[in-house]
From TrEMBL:
It comes from Streptomyces plicatus. It catalyses: [thioredoxin]-dithiol + NADP(+) = [thioredoxin]-disulfide + NADPH + H(+). Keywords: Flavoprotein, Oxidoreductase. It comes from the Bacteria. Residues 8-25 have a biased composition (Basic and acidic residues). Pfam families: Pyr_redox_2. InterPro entries: FAD/NAD-bd_sf, FAD/NAD-binding_dom, Ferredoxin-NADP_redctase_2. Residues 1-25 are annotated as: Disordered. Residues 28-308 form the FAD/NAD(P)-binding domain. This is NAD(P)/FAD-dependent oxidoreductase.
Length: 332
C-alpha cells in the first residue's frame, strides 16, 4: 500500500470538527472512494472548502485502455493517465490525502467506517463513492486485445479519430442497431455483424433505418478479428468469410461497481445497462451522508460529466456539513 501524505495548508481548518477526537489520524470529514475524474473533482472542491478529505484510489480507471480522451474542453486529446496525474497534483495543494488502496467494506453508525484492503480503517462524516463500472467485452478472440485502439465502443470518444474508415459493429443484442446507426454519422461504410443475434430479432423499423443509413447487415457468428502488422484489418466469421474492416465498435456489458453502496442499503434502480443507485440532482443517495458520481451512477457518464458530478456532490456535502454543524451548535 502506497500512502501519499501532503503537508496541510496552515489556513486549512482541518481540526474544526475533529479536535475532540483522539483518533484524528484516521478520521476525516469526507472520504472519497475512487480516484478517477469524479473522485478527484469532488476532492478538489472539498479540499478548497477546508474539509479534511481522504481519497482511496485502487488505480483502475475505466478509460485506462485508451491513449486519449476527447470532448473535454481544454483537455481534448489528453492521455487519461496525464489527466489523473494533474488532478492528483491539484488536490495535494489543498491538503487532500490520497491512499493507494482498495475499499473492501463499509459500515455506518454515526459516521462511516471504511475498511481498506491494506488493513487500515478510516472514519468519515460523509462518504462519496465514485467506483465507476467495469466493461465486460464480448468473448470474441482479439476483441479484448484491441480494445481502446481499433476496437472501440463510443463514437463521441473516438469517432473523429477514425472518421471515414471501414466500420464494423459487433452486435451484442438487438440494441446494437442503435450503435450501428449512431456510428454511421462518422463513416458511410458501416457493416453490422449480427453475431449471435437472429435477423428475426430486428424490427421492421430497425431494418428501414439501417437501410436508410446505408448500413449493411451481415448474419452469422463472428469468430474473431484479423490483425496485420498490429492493425485491425478485418472481421472473420465462423464460416471462414473475412470482411475487410479497419475499426470495430462493440457494446460492452456494463457492470456497475456498486458493492459499497449496496452494503449500506442504498436504493438501486434497474436500467438496460445494469442497476444504479437512485440519486437526487447532486448525487445524494437514499442513505444519509452518502453521495455518488461518475459511472457509479450511470453507464453514459463521460469524463467531463464525471468531473461535473463530483463537483456537484462535493458542493452539496459542504453545505450539508455546515448546516449540520450549525444545527448541532444551536442544539448544544
Amino acid at each position: 500500500m502506497e500512502v501519499v501524505t501532503v503537508t496541510r495548508n496552515k489556513d486549512n481548518k482541518d481540526d474544526k470538527n475533529l479536535s475532540n477526537d483522539p483518533n484524528t489520524a484516521d478520521r476525516y470529514d469526507v472520504v472519497v472512494v475512487g480516484g478517477g475524474a469524479a473522485g478527484l473533482s469532488a476532492a478538489l472542491v472539498l479540499g478548497r472548502s477546508r474539509l479534511r478529505t481522504l481519497v482511496v484510489d485502487a488505480g483502475e480507471p475505466r478509460n485506462a485502455p485508451s491513449d486519449h480522451m476527447q470532448g473535454f474542453l481544454t483537455r481534448d486529446g489528453m492521455a487519461p493517465a496525464e489527466f489523473l496525474a494533474l488532478g492528483r497534483e491539484e488536490i495535494a495543494r489543498y491538503g487532500v490525502e490520497l491512499v493507494r488502496d482498495r475499499a473492501v467494506d463499509v459500515a455506518r453508525e454515526e459516521d462511516f467506517t471504511v475498511s481498506l484492503a491494506g488493513g487500515r480503517s478510516v472514519r468519515a462524516r460523509r462518504l462519496v463513492v465514485t467506483t465507476g463500472l467495469k466493461d465486460e467485452l464480448p468473448e470474441v478472440p482479439g476483441v479484448a486485445e484491441r480494445f481502446g485502439r481499433d476496437v472501440l465502443h463510443c463514437p463521441f470518444c473516438h469517432g473523429w479519430e477514425v472518421r471515414d474508415e471501414r466500420f464494423g459493429v459487433l452486435a451484442a443484442s438487438p440494441m446494437s442497431v442503435h450503435q450501428a446507426l449512431m456510428v454511421s454519422g462518422w463513416s458511410d461504410d458501416v457493416v453490422l455483424f449480427l453475431h449471435r443475434v437472429a435477423e428475426e430479432e430486428l424490427s421492421d423499423e430497425d431494418l428501414r433505418r439501417l437501410a436508410a443509413a446505408g448500413v449493411k447487415v451481415v448474419p452469422g457468428e463472428v469468430a474473431g478479428v484479423r490483425v496485420e502488422e498490429d492493425r485491425l484489418t478485418g472481421v472473420r466469421l465462423a464460416d471462414g468469410t473475412v470482411h475487410d474492416r479497419s475499426v470495430v465498435f462493440v457494446a460492452p456489458k456494463a457492470v456497475p461497481q456498486t458493492g459499497l453502496m449496496e452494503r449500506l442499503g442504498a436504493e438501486l434502480q434497474e436500467t438496460p445497462f445494469g442497476a444504479y443507485p437512485v440519486v437526487d440532482a447532486t448525487g445524494r443517495t437514499s442513505v444519509p451522508g452518502l453521495w455518488t458520481a461518475g459511472n457509479a451512477l450511470g453507464f453514459a457518464e463521460q469524463v467531463i460529466h464525471a468531473a461535473s458530478g463530483g463537483y456537484r456532490a462535493a458542493s452539496a456535502i459542504v453545505g450539508d456539513l455546515i448546516m449540520s454543524d450549525l444545527d448541532a451548535a444551536i442544539a448544544g
